[in-house]
Queue: 3 jobs
Job 1
Amino acid sequence: MGMNKKTWALLCLSALLSAFVLISAVVILVDPFQIYRLATRYMPPIDNTTQVYANAGIVRQYDYDSAIVGTSVTENFRPTQMDALLGGRFIKLCTSAGTAYNHALLLNLAFKTHDMKRVVYGLDVYSFIAGVEETGSDVPLYLYDENPFNDVQYWLNRSVLASFLPRCLRAWGQRQDDSLRDSMYCWAGRDDYGPVMLYNASFSPPETVLHADAYAGAALENLRKHLIPFIEAHPETQFDIFFPPYSAAEWSTMASKGTLEAMLALRGVCYDALCGYGNVTLYDFAAREEWVTNIDNYKDTLHYGQWINDAITACIASGDGIAASRAQLDEASDRLRRWAEAMLEAGGWIF
């Protein structure tokens, strides 16, 4: 006598549930992105394509008391150099094209899971014009919260099962060592520098010009929600916040888009909001002439070579580049404006 429909349905349901449990158990046990424990038996899949997943494990599981936070222009920092010059033990908490919200997700977990001595924060002006709930790319927010039940999206994730779990199994027996702190997300040495950097530059007058305060509201909202709360809640933590040294051509490109004055004004908004905190030191490298007017330092108008990251670390260690007053910051902004306007008038790179 054959099975009735109810028995068959129950058997199928049991088999399906068993498969889900087995698959989930394997993902939890191997844990490709180190959400539950540090990988000790395989090399975890940490690269620029896995960043928003890998960061969720790195920020929880790695041994550090200091962090470099920022966008792709912070990915070439060397934590071992920062250890030596700044003290502490650094880790990279970087998100390529990240917004202030991206950075806050990482800072939130860092402060929850570690005693933080120092944060070196790259204040990329592009990060602070985004909406307060906007991320630079799709982020698996379920890996950044405290709810273990929504982790089912990790356990049954198609890419985890089809790509990253097999990748971990193929790397079984390989051990990560301390060199990973420097190499993770680092793109140094992969690109050409020099005249090639001008491929995305623009040196033509704008059709329309944004008002100077166009980004002020977004910047203040991002500061008040995604950066200042950490500064205020952790007076024991030193925040070294710096304006990165984009090439002079990047500011000319802003002028061509009609956003230059709005971006320069945003610098002042950020400075005013942050300068009054005793645990904050502000650095301005945006108009460091020997860096930003040397075409050989850049692979494009925005991204500089690792030697500039090393130089920034050395500057922070020595106190070189501190923006001691709003007047000093405005003077640097005036310099950026003059360079941008001169390149628009010349129709090309002038240095």
Note: The chain has a mean pLDDT of 94.
Job 2
Amino acid sequence: MSNWKFINKTYLYDGTLFGFLSLVFNCYSTKTMPQKICAQDTYNPNFLDSPVWIETDFEKSQRVFTGIEKNISYHTLYTTYYAFLSNEEDKEMNLLKYLCDGFKIGPNINNRLTISYIFKVMSMKKRSFGECHRLKGLLRFQEVGNNLYYASIHPDNNILEPLAHHFINRLPSQNFMIHDKTRNICLLYNGKEYKIIDATQLKIPNISENEQKYQELWKSFFKTIAIKERKNPKCQMQYMPKKYWSDLIEEP
């Protein structure tokens, strides 16, 4: 990026992946690199910043999305998606540099781990993907109504959507909701389509009587099969991290 112009500006966007890809299009087409990138809802204004709002353009973002897969690789697109879900503060700048270099270098960009921002992107992707994979096994649905199931999670990264896709594929005709209590958002699925809503005013019904019975049976089974002499909390926390225990039905 030796021929790029580095500007003392803070680029603001709407916090979505399409908004970020619109920003990538803007930077790549003008060959400019901002000092900072920040989602609008997390931006704290200060007198040293010169904020510039980048409007989300779905046509431009789609061109970037398609271009990543076509001109770099599907692996890069996959990496970009999961890295974007990371809770790292500097994820946008690292991803911007990663993608702009990727359009120049091609698929080999993923092998240049000695470059700091590429290594950070790979690390962000690994953490987000790993947490999503872990929660596929730890998420617990509870019946809260007639053919409606609810689950709560407290993830570090914003992996609600890819996590929900896993359960949509496994339970395509089931009505369910997954509540990300860390970000206070909820994904609702009605057996046909899904949407993510703000859960600030969300009221969760009590679990059904049938669910209560099954939970008691499960807790009884969980305690019965446990061998007190072989209890290993350290090993248990390795596979079932303590930070997720509040969302589990059983008591580890």
Note: The longest strand covers residues 148-153.
Job 3
Amino acid sequence: MKKITAILLAAAISVSLASAQNPAARYINTLRNANTLKEASWSVLAVKVKGDTIANLNSRQKLIPASNTKLITTGIALNELGADYRFKTKIAYHGKIEDGTLKGDVYIIGGGDPTIAATQDSCATPYSKLFSSWAKMLADAGIKRIEGRIIGDGRWFDGMEVDGDWAYDDLGTYYSPGGNGLCFYENEVDFRAVPGAAVGAPVSITQTWPETPWMSISSIAKTSKAGSGDDLLYYATEMAPVGEMRGTLGIDSGTRKEECANRYGALTCAYYFFRHLESAGISVSDGPADIDSQRHIRSFDSETSPWAMPWDSLKVIGVSESPRLADIVSRTNHVSDNFYAETLLRATGREKAGSAAYPAALEYELQALKKLGVDTSYGFLQDDGSGLSRRTWITTDFFVRFLKSMRKSSVWKEYLASLPQPGKGTLSGRVNGAPQSDRSRIYMKSGSMGGVRCYSGYVLPANGKEEDTIVFSILTNNVTAPSRELLPQLDRLIELIAAENR
């Protein structure tokens, strides 16, 4: 009890002392009485690398960091795998080639590459070009016809495809698709939704991209009153090829694009490669398939489910590579891509601990943090890679310690460049009140979910002296105030922190 009291007293003294010294700390005291944060749980820590504390409020309080978790996931992936690491996808076959005909199956052996057919990803190879390179691998091996299947093989990632603690309502959304070692279009599927002509009428739901012909998709969504907005939710699972759209769409909402989770990324990849081969004149007699959790070959138009062949029995005929990890990390942080972040966590576990399963990957994350020199004995509990889980609890003190350690990493330059700045990526419209000379020195990651708003990162010094770099973290939880009221206040706090090393 005495220890807890001492910690709280130290935090209060820190705020009190700082409040007499700088505007940022004084503004924190103002916010403590503001309606936006009066009933919230929140924490702030901002320090200079050389040791000066700018502001400190509840810095040892564990809070939900949302997508600030990606700061740790991406930093560890870069530090452990290296900026030049590339995910590899192998094309292999099982069977015999006779007179240009493969009597057997082609395997697309995924290596975790999250960029295959990725949406709006300028660093990724267009999937048509990628598939052409895979087709050339087959041609170079003398394969002109296939009497067998195209099998999407995602076995490189073992374990559950989604984190077990994600909210049920999140599981059908584009931002929580999960997946195994082979994906397509970030395992997303898009629908066109149009409200009915009257309240209570069915909402028209049409699948647009990609095609998933093995799925049976239904809808019980209804049209709701004007002003009620979009409350559509899609439910699907990898355990059965069914999906259902539920919820409501306001009658005045117009045509909407609904971005949802595709639980069959490996099969979708195999399906589109199959179609690519067919269009190139290479027939595939038994169509596309994937491999289920029991390691059976799965094709929903066939009643047979033979065992997938072990990798050491396959003949690898070619390998394609993803963009550099540094580029993937940059996209992850700039657009806060959950799918990429989960892939980075699991790929690090697979490469370094031999397993991509969440328990093994998270356990290795702890080891990697310790190697980086970060004490994980307090202030840290990570449950996933993206921050979607509400069972991840981290302190601002931990974020500051981690961010300070990353400055000493060999991948510091790439890591810093991966972080958004005001006016870019997820920070568009943020910190507009600061002069451009300050905004250009801020590198930070945002994080948000219901009732949660967070920002952590760096402010580089105007004088160029590294010891004057500011490392900061701001976490707010249980916020009931509208974002239009809270965000300007957090922006102002960041502006005042950035002013401390002009």
Note: Confidence is low (pLDDT under 50) at residues 1-19.
